[in-house]
Structure prediction request, 666 residues.
Amino acid sequence: MTSENDLQFSELKVTVLAGGVGGAKMVVGFDRALRPGDLSVVVNTGDDFRHFGLQICPDIDSVCYTLAGVANKTYGWGLEGETWQVADALKELGAPTWFQLGDRDLAMHMERTRLLEHGKSLSEVVKTLSRRMGIQSKVYPMSDQPAPTMIETKQGSVLSFQDYLVRLAAEPEVKRIIHGGGEHAQALPGALKAIEEADFVVLAPSNPWVSIDPILARPGISEALIKQTVYAVSPIILGKALKGPAAKMFAELGIEPSSLAVMEHYQETLDYFVHDISEPPIEKNDSPKAERRVGVPEIVRTLQFQTIMKDENDKVALAKAICSHYLQNRCDA
Amino acid sequence: MTSENDLQFSELKVTVLAGGVGGAKMVVGFDRALRPGDLSVVVNTGDDFRHFGLQICPDIDSVCYTLAGVANKTYGWGLEGETWQVADALKELGAPTWFQLGDRDLAMHMERTRLLEHGKSLSEVVKTLSRRMGIQSKVYPMSDQPAPTMIETKQGSVLSFQDYLVRLAAEPEVKRIIHGGGEHAQALPGALKAIEEADFVVLAPSNPWVSIDPILARPGISEALIKQTVYAVSPIILGKALKGPAAKMFAELGIEPSSLAVMEHYQETLDYFVHDISEPPIEKNDSPKAERRVGVPEIVRTLQFQTIMKDENDKVALAKAICSHYLQNRCDA
Prediction:
């Protein structure tokens, strides 16, 4: 990218809707590409849960740790250079160990819980802690109210999300995904404002069912997106998810895992759909539902960029490719 | 002590009422002197508080860590060989650091909080965790309901106990000690039973105001003690407390810190009062209140043993001295 591009990007305000690991990668690309403070991130809190009395927000932590440059590069969760003194002691005590809690990670959960117990809202806590971590981008939980994602399995049980994903290693077959909270978990006003005031919005390459849908399910979010220029980046490449159970979930829900399926899933809100350059282009008549959705391919335009983000350069390049596309398109209009 | 003594002690069931550090020292002496399982300890929970979302029970932990042989020998609180990874991370995050939380200690608070949030009572949690630690003596919180001790200062503020003791280093002048909980914090039935079924009861050399009084304030405890043979061990030696703010509190409450003052404080429930051999004997007419309590010295008999417990031998010797006295007295009767 030329410095001319960078100068152009300095005008842009972008808002990304993100889940955990895949979302965090995309977010850090925009954070580095834009002027400090011009990125807003609306983060899924459907995974949040209480464990050992502590309020744990896995996706917010993934995003914040990545933005602060302290995320663990090997695992995709937790912190680099983490220690495990408390985890070892918990094991000795016979406490459950299925959710791994590093010592420094634990300090974050403790301080968040302390601030919440002192009456602060989750969004206030996230603002305080992200500032203390030196993060300049704005990080918003999707809601200040709980909106837990539950997994109904084909075996008939309803599992809390971390139970399903971590304790049971995403092994149960998914029948239905339930987005909790309903009308009681309104979209965070600051998140809505960030969506409204952005030049464009990006749905990060997170799991559509359990990372992005919980955000879209918040009253007010879909309405705000319809008025916006919205990009989505596919988390599926050649039928597979780079990480996590997205492809397995698609299959269990009776949908062939593909970028096309992701595009169809999001179609109501999208302007542009980005999928990886390694895939064949998505054709108008690829969609088996095309007949009853005449014209959709005219509305949702597909783009192909390199979406595999192995290092920071890849992340920044993808963010800049989307920004450049937006600027060109804006100039065309 | 001869093996004959030890054989005699094997008949005895003893219940100790204890606070933190001084109490834990006495408790471990009886634990080692008696047959496994024949010691019961009723522990002050007036110091319990919530911090970082975790339920912290300082006195229960002091007693359990000491009984399990893992207590820190230098500080009198916390664990031997403790690490401080989480504390360091909390400090980096800008979290409050006035209450020191070692990593292994923290695991205990986390597992306790987890079990409480799963609906277990505090006494069930203490039973479970003390067993997991290999403790054979029975440890009972004084109540399953909260009964927080508050400190009213001469400056007019009311402080929670840990705020006063730890955060403010016991510096504010004490005007009044308030025992919270009232009728809502009944004595634990198991604790009452342990008092009733013991051969004798000992009030450990803990702070009378803030470690023993909260236990005595539980409805049912005083009534149970009146029917029992009760020993108390003075925490004051030659006008000073070995540890903690007991002597300072006595002075601020307008009472000269002395073993006599401790004896007078407990007189309603005592049969025998043990003070250190380094002190002059307490005489009948030492008590300035003797006139209106005629006969008290006839009811409360004073004993002098070595009460400074520098090592495990000292602790066991004091426990055995009290046991021997009890057995001799029982044979005399």
